[in-house]
TrEMBL record:
Residues 1-138 form the Peptidase C45 hydrolase domain. Pfam families: AAT (PF03417). It comes from the Bacteria. It comes from Lentibacillus kapialis. This is Peptidase C45 hydrolase domain-containing protein. InterPro entries: C45_proenzyme-like, Peptidase_C45_hydrolase.
Length: 174
C-alpha cells in the first residue's frame, strides 16, 4: 500500500523521502527509491523512526536503524556482500536481474520461515519508464510500461505467476 502511495503521489525521491517521514509505520521496511534523475536512496522505516542513506542496495537488514534489526542476519549480510561485489562488474540489466532472481547465484533467499525469503524481484528503468517484475526465483520478468500508466492508461496485464518454496501463507498470493 505504501509503495503504491509513493508511485501515485511522489514525483521525485525527495517527495518519497518526505512522504515516508510523515507516514506512520506499523512495521519495519526498507524502500529503495529511484527517480528520472537517477538519484537512488534506501529509506529505512520503522514505527520508531525513518532514516535515509544514498545507496541502491539493501537486503533484509537495516544499515542505519541497526537497533531495529533481528538477531540472525548472517544470510542477509552475505547476500548484500554478493550484490556489492557483483555490482562493480557493470552488469547489463538482464545480468543484474539474473543475479537477483536466480536461485543459484547467492542473492535469492528461500528462508521464508525466518521471514527473510525472496518473494519478488524487480528492476526499474526510469529513463524508459519501464519496470520488470517476477514472483519467485528462476523466473523471467514481466515488463510494465509506466509511460502509458502515467498518461492514465490501464496496464493490461495477466496475473503474474511464480512459485515460492514454502507452505506459509503470503498475502495476495493464491
Amino acid at each position: 500500500m505504501i509503495g503504491r502511495m509513493i508511485l501515485e503521489t511522489c514525483a521525485s525521491v525527495d517527495d518519497a523521502i518526505q512522504l515516508l517521514k510523515e507516514l506512520p509505520h506499523r512495521g519495519s521496511f526498507s524502500y529503495v527509491v529511484l527517480d528520472r534523475n537517477e538519484k537512488t536512496y534506501v529509506i529505512e522505516a520503522s514505527p520508531r523512526g525513518v532514516l535515509v542513506r544514498q545507496s541502491h542496495v539493501c537486503t533484509n537488514h537495516f544499515e542505519l536503524l541497526q537497533h531495529e534489526n533481528r538477531h540472525h542476519l548472517d544470510d542477509s549480510r552475505r547476500r548484500m556482500q554478493t550484490i556489492d561485489r557483483e555490482s562493480h562488474k557493470h552488469l547489463s540489466a538482464q545480468d543484474a536481474f539474473r543475479l537477483l532472481n536466480d536461485k543459484n547465484r547467492g542473492v535469492f533467499s528461500g528462508l521464508y520461515k525466518s521471514w527473510a525469503g525472496t518473494i519478488h524481484t524487480s528492476a526499474y528503468f526510469p529513463k524508459d519508464l519501464k519496470a520488470w517484475f517476477a514472483l519467485g526465483g528462476d523466473q523471467e520478468p514481466i515488463e510494465f510500461n509506466f509511460a502509458g500508466w502515467l498518461k492514465g492508461e490501464d496496464i493490461a496485464a495477466e496475473p503474474i505467476h511464480g512459485e515460492l518454496d514454502t507452505k506459509m501463507g503470503i498475502a495476495n498470493m493464491d
